[in-house]
Design goal:
2 domains, 29% helix, Rossmann fold, alpha+beta, 26% strand, 10 helices, Jelly Rolls, globular, eight-stranded antiparallel beta sheet, five-stranded antiparallel beta sheet
Length: 333
């Protein structure tokens, strides 16, 4: 959405909160019909949010604030598809108001040449401030900017639904999440609809996803947040969720629970049963790849024994990207 001449990518609503604005990735009325955790917590995570604009002044100042979270919060700067240089590549967002100063690069023509020669999808005139997955408040902006135009973006967009693994926990930096990296490899834009701890296949979320016309391909990661459910309830939710997405007609690529490490080092019997349920419905309705086919290495799981490490995320990207690419219709290649 456009606010103060900035394209707030992956933001559905902007609502005043304390000394700034809270960035809702899900409309408030939709979140109200989803599970309590999504409504009260993960709908306002900054996962996959980017502040995008074209600079018309030599400097633009963005003010942000972090609502405290256990891990450090870092924003990353891109000019189109190209990462910012060491002078302005990353910014720590503090608990008090943080001022981020962005200077217009003096080598824009060189970046435009590289973009054309390499066939990169984003115009380097598009400044992209990539926010982390915490709770970031937008406070204010100074400088002259306009929103980017449609021809400055990739032609196609990948939407990714899932748990904290999708949203980027333990990716350490937003550009290392698998939605960011798979989209980058496909030459697509991306929408990160990861909901940490609250990806419960809510009907309201499925209906909202298919109502959106801003994506062309979707991935679904289902199951890990639902391990505590009764299996019959799990099956009913997966049936409804995948049915709504499949009926939409756009290509959907689904997966189940990735590898996680149990105390005895064995695979969880219940997780295996849930994987089979996801397979039952997704395989018949969309492109399905079992979670263990994308990530099975126990050494690629972080110390919390659930979230993939950087190596695990890289493996998901390496294995899922060619599957998606090979099964895209010609119009999306």
């Amino acid at each position: 959405m456009i606010f103060q001449n900035i394209d707030f990518h992956n933001v559905a609503q902007i609502i005043p909160y304390e000394d700034g604005c809270r960035l809702w990735r899900v409309p408030v009325d939709v979140a109200a019909r989803a599970n309590e955790g999504l409504r009260d917590r993960s709908a306002t995570y900054s996962t996959g949010i980017e502040l995008r604009f074209v600079m018309h002044s030599d400097e633009v100042t963005i003010r942000l604030r972090n609502l405290p979270i256990a891990e450090g919060q870092m924003a990353y700067l891109y000019f189109g598809s190209l990462q910012g240089g060491w002078q302005q590549s990353s910014f720590i967002i503090r608990d008090d108001t943080t001022t981020i100063s962005i200077r217009r690069p003096g080598n824009l023509e060189q970046m435009q040449l590289i973009t054309r020669q390499a066939g990169l999808p984003f115009d380097p005139q598009v400044v992209r401030l990539v926010l982390p997955y915490g709770n970031i408040l937008y406070c204010s902006m100074t400088g002259e900017v306009t929103p980017p135009t449609a021809d400055m973006f990739p032609k196609h967009t990948l939407l990714c639904y899932g748990s904290s693994i999708t949203h980027g926990s333990l990716a350490l930096a937003a550009p290392h999440t698998y939605p960011f990296r798979i989209a980058q490899k496909l030459g697509f834009d991306y929408l990160n609809c990861g909901f940490a701890g609250t990806a419960l296949c809510d009907r309201a979320i499925a209906e909202w996803l298919v109502s959106r016309r801003d994506w062309h391909v979707a991935t679904l990661e289902m199951g890990v947040n639902m391990l505590g459910m009764d299996e019959s309830e799990f099956e009913a939710l997966v049936d409804t969720f995948t049915g709504i997405l499949a009926d939409d007609g756009r290509p959907v690529f689904a997966t189940s629970i990735f590898r996680f490490n149990t105390v005895d080092g064995q695979l969880s019997p219940k997780a295996n049963r849930l994987r089979a349920i996801v397979c039952k419905y997704a395989q018949a309705r969309m492109h399905f790849t079992d979670g263990l086919a994308l990530l099975e290495n126990p050494a690629f799981i972080s110390q919390d024994m659930v979230h993939p490490s950087l190596e695990g995320i890289a493996q998901i990207v390496e294995r899922w990207t060619p599957i998606i690419r090979q099964n895209l219709p010609e119009t999306l290649r």
